[in-house]
Amino acid sequence: MTKLAIIGGSGLDKLGTLTVLHEHRLLTSYGAPSAALLEGTLDGTPVVFLPRHGPTHALPPHAINYRANIAALRDFGVETILAVTAVGGIGAGASPGIIVIPDQIIDYTWGREHTFYDGKDGTLDHVEFGTPYSAPWRARLIAAGHSLGLPMLETGTYGATQGPRLETAAEIARMARDGCTIVGMTGMPEAALAREAGLGYANCALVVNWAAGLSDLAISLADIERELKDGISGVVRLLSLAVRADHSPAP
Ligand code: HPA
User: Fold this and answer.
1) Are 51 and 206 in contact (CB under 8 A)?
2) Hey, what domains does the chain have and what are their CATH numbers?
3) Distance spanning both ends of the chain, measured CA to CA
4) How far is the CA of 16 from the centre of ligand 1 (A)?
5) Backbone dihedral angles phi then psi of residue 81, each to the nearest 5 degrees
6) Ligand 1 mean position, distance from CA 208 (Å)
7) How many angstroms separate the CA atoms of 173 and 169, rounded?
8) Which end of the chain is more exposed for a tag (fewer CB within 10 A), N or C?
9) pLDDT category of residue 143 using cuts at 50, 70 and 90
10) Are 51 and 34 in contact (CB under 8 A)?
């Protein structure tokens, strides 16, 4: 069976429905991951859970040790990562409350440790990244969302910004011109590192606000938190169904 991990983002620092069996505090050659890996079962399916921002949500997006997170999961034997992210909506249809299963990425982040091929150990590879997300796992997420009747966009381009501040209206207008459907701060370099590590990776993105300049109302943290609270239970149900071994065949 594929060894699966879920990386939880904002609103999912704890996976309440996970039955925790073991806690693993790992140290990688890139440092410590955001938290101990929680090994357990989700509705009977073995999964490993890692909260990206740490157990108390203290790590801002640019300070997350993405390399340590991915290296720890790889070293633990994980083969596929399902990442949960909270995002702003840019494209038509990406309204708050919708779950997007993106199929593309544009990376606007900077200054992050973004590769395992940093020239320090004499190895180099240029991994293929034309299709940044795992097609079979995207299909499983989409199928699970549909069978639960959750509001979803089956495709979209995830624009990864540096944060922790939100974007300006002009930045979002540029991202819309670029073709971004959603905007978040943690989708990269996580996805690229997973690819470099040879792991399958798919992103389940919950839209929690209209991105800057797209609504008459200013973005408020209270609104974001309310959308997160309302939407995250659907995301967890979707994940539980998607990981169930008997749900559909997945390579
Ligand atoms: N921008 C960037 N990241 C986000 C947003 C946003 O509007 N909403 C949630 N995460």
Assistant:
1) no
2) 4-112+131-243 (3.40.50.1580)
3) 10
4) 24
5) -115, 130
6) 8
7) 6
8) N
9) very high
10) yes
Alpha carbon distances (Å) from 220 to 107, 120, 137: 25, 43, 33
**Confidence check: pLDDT of 150 > 80:** yes
**Of all atoms in ligand 1, which is nearest to the CA of residue 166?**
1
With a threshold of 0.85, does the pTM exceed it? yes
CA 181/CA 156 separation, integer angstroms = 5
Task: Specify the pLDDT at position 249.
Answer: 47
What sign does the dihedral 43-49-55-59 (CA atoms) show? negative
Joined tokens for residue 185? 């701060």
Atom 5, ligand 1: which residue's CA is nearest? 88
Sign of CA dihedral 189, 87, 59, 42: negative
**Distance of CA 251 to CAs 80, 125, 140, 147, Å?**
10, 24, 11, 20
With beta carbons less than 8 A apart as the criterion, state whether 154 and 142 touch. Answer: yes
Q: What is the pLDDT of residue 47?
A: 96
Half-sphere exposure (Cβ direction) of 116: Cα atoms closer than 13 Å? 22
Phi-psi category of 193—alpha, beta or left, where left has phi over 0 and alpha has psi -120 to 50? alpha
**Residue-level length of the chain:** 251
Q: Which of 6, 9, 60 is nearest to 38 (CA)?
A: 6
Ligand 1, residues 87, 98, 182, 225: which to mutate, most atoms within 8 A of Cβ?
Answer: 87
Question: Which residue is associated with the tokens 């203290």?
Answer: 58
Euclidean distance between CA atoms 49 and 15, whole angstroms: 8
Q: Which of 121, 42, 41, 38 has its CA nearest to residue 73? A: 38
